[in-house]
Structures are given as C-alpha cells and as structure tokens.
Design goal:
The chain is of the alpha/beta class and about 350 residues long. It is built from 8 helices and 17 strands. Helices cover about 25% and strands about 25% of the residues. The strands form 4 sheets. Strands 1, 2, 3, 4, 5, 6 and 17 form a 7-stranded mixed β-sheet that branches. α5 runs parallel beside α6.
Length: about 350
C-alpha cells in the first residue's frame, strides 16, 4: 500500500461479494487491495455468513459447508491469485476527486482509481446476550429463514419469527414448508406489513400470532429450547417452547463511512444502475447486500461481486490502466461490425 501510488482497485468488505470481486480483479492482474474490516460486536469479517452454521444452497457443495469455512475458502482463493488484505475497517472515503482516497482505522490513507463497496448489511438483533450467543454457536437462532430454515435442524419443530413487517411475513410463510407450527411474535397489536402479506400469514393454518409480545430471553444452553416473553401492555411474562428463532426486524446497510457521497435508497441501500453495479460516481461500484434488500443471498452477492470487478476492469482499461483489454458488450460489437 502506498499513498503516493494509486491502487488500481480497492475493495471494501469481506463477504461473498468482496472476495468474488477480489478473485476476478486478481486474475485480471489488477493487484487488488481488500479492506476486510475487523470484529465489532456481532459484526465479523466475513459478514453474516460468519453466524451461519451449515450452508446447503451454495453451488458446488453437495454436503453442507459452514459459513465461516466457506468464507475462509473464498478468501483463500482470492489470496492465492494475488489479492492483498488489510484487516482494518475503513472509517472514511473521499470520492470528490481522483484518485479516490480511502482512510482506514489505523494505517495511512491510500488512493485508488476504482473502488468496490461490498460492506453488506447488518442484521438487526433483539439485543439479548442469550440470542447472540446461540446465533454465534449455531444453536438455533438466525436472522435469515431462507438461508437456514430448510436445514434438518429446524424441520418439524415449532419455530418462532420476531417481527411485523413484510420481511417477517415472508420468513414466516417460508418456514411453514418445514415447521410443525410457526409462531409470529410482534410487540404491537397489528402488523406493519402490507395487507396482502399480512393476510397470507393470518390465514395460514400453520401460523399463530402472539400480539403485544416481546422476547426478553432466549432459553437453552447449547441449543434453543424456548423463549421468555413479556406482554407489552400489562407486563406479564410467559414462556413458550420453540425449536428455532428467526429474528426478522430488518437490516442496516453498512454505508455510514461513505458520508452521504453515494446515492442511496430511502432505506440506505446503495443505488446502482439497472443490471449494473455502477453508482452515481464514475469508477465506484457497489455489490452484495449493501445494494440488495430483496434477495440477500450469498450466491447473489457473489454474482454482483463478479459484476463489480468486471465493470471496474473495463473502466480501468478504457482509461489506459491495467493490462486487460477494453471489453465491449455484444451490442457494441454488432454495432461496430455494421459500421
């Protein structure tokens, strides 16, 4: 790293999007630098997959692979091809002039011709020690039903979903495929979700709703056995046996360090061009969950990481940087042939 010599590409993040972008950039001889971050609370380098025990839906692994192992292997692949890694968080960036300036927590600032932002989105947790402990050790607490709900561990059990928005409704409906019963726990007396989504949940024979209730403790040592609840109206407490807990109260995109320089949606996700990863600033690309409030899957994150690296490679080539040739789209090639 050198502040005087701009990097070809700096990738900020450490999930599937970041490491996939690094693999593609490294194989294009762009000598990428990845700022993978550092542990902060429940946030670990590697992203949300670091809290996932068995992954069964990532292509290439007929036998389940743990989230941490998958991230280790993808990172190792990126490093094998020449990626350099800095284990620091980026505290700020200056995208107002070229080359861009990236300032990490401890080391000196670096400059870069292109930047890929793949910092993900942090799941919102209830905030209980027991909840986080069981999530970290694979004890039956998760923030993604689509990621984990189909695992054998959760099948034919009573499963709980905390939340009242569309995400919670989607998680609950998904879990009805595998659970003996799905209990939706909501702190109010009505859902925030759209009427259509709410009605699907309320009319499903496998779903039961506990209104005006909040989780105050997750029970169980190695694995979840139940929940302690408190009535938000009268303060009374009760317990319910469950075999799994899915927290569906939203995500927060990790974009604070950008200082508002990149256009975002009303919920804070980075806006990119349709079917592209380019942002409102030329040479800056975004990938993974930081742009995605819809799919939020490891494989879709990896796909956008590939896209971001290819777009950065093309930008660099167009500006005479790097060894890669200028790649044209099929449409551009046809247009030139006709001329």
């Amino acid at each position: 790293m050198s502040a005087s010599t701009p990097e070809n590409i700096v990738i900020i993040g450490s999930g599937p999007a970041a490491w996939t972008a690094a693999i593609y950039a490294a194989r294009a001889n762009l000598n990428p630098l990845v700022f993978e971050g550092e542990p902060v609370g429940t946030e670990l380098p590697g992203g949300q997959l670091m809290l996932t025990t068995d992954i069964e839906n990532f292509p290439g692994f007929p036998e389940a692979i743990s989230g941490p192992e998958l991230m280790d292997r993808v990172k190792a692949q990126a490093v094998h091809h020449g990626t350099r890694v800095a284990s620091e968080l980026v505290k700020q960036v200056d995208l107002s002039q070229r080359p861009f300036t990236i300032t990490p927590n401890y080391s000196g600032a670096v400059t870069a011709h292109t930047v890929v932002i793949a910092t993900g989105a942090a799941a919102k947790w209830i905030g209980l020690e027991s909840e986080i402990r069981l999530a970290q050790q694979g004890g039956g607490v998760s923030a993604c039903a689509v990621c984990d709900g189909a695992m054998p561990f959760y099948r034919n059990k009573r499963l709980a979903v905390v939340g009242g928005g569309d995400t919670a409704m989607e998680e609950a409906m998904y879990l009805t495929k595998f659970a003996s019963e799905v209990v939706v726990i909501h702190r109010r007396d009505s859902f925030r979700a759209s009427k259509v989504m709410a009605n699907r949940v309320l009319t499903h024979p496998k779903v039961r709703v506990l209104w005006n209730s909040q989780v105050t403790e997750v029970l169980g040592d190695e694995f979840i056995t139940g929940l302690r609840l408190q009535d938000t109206v009268n303060g009374s407490t009760s317990e319910i046996e469950v075999g799994g807990l899915f927290v569906a109260i939203g995500h927060t995109p990790n974009t604070k360090f950008l200082g508002g320089q990149i256009d975002t949606s009303e919920h804070g996700y980075i806006k990119v061009a349709p079917w592209r990863t380019s942002t409102n600033i030329e040479g800056v690309y975004a990938a993974g969950d930081v742009i995605d409030d819809y799919y939020r899957q490891a494989i879709t994150s990896a796909g956008t990481g590939c896209m971001a690296a290819l777009e950065a490679e093309r930008w660099l080539a167009h500006h005479g940087i790097g060894e890669a040739p200028v790649l044209e789209t099929g449409e551009s090639s046809i247009a030139k042939a006709e001329v």
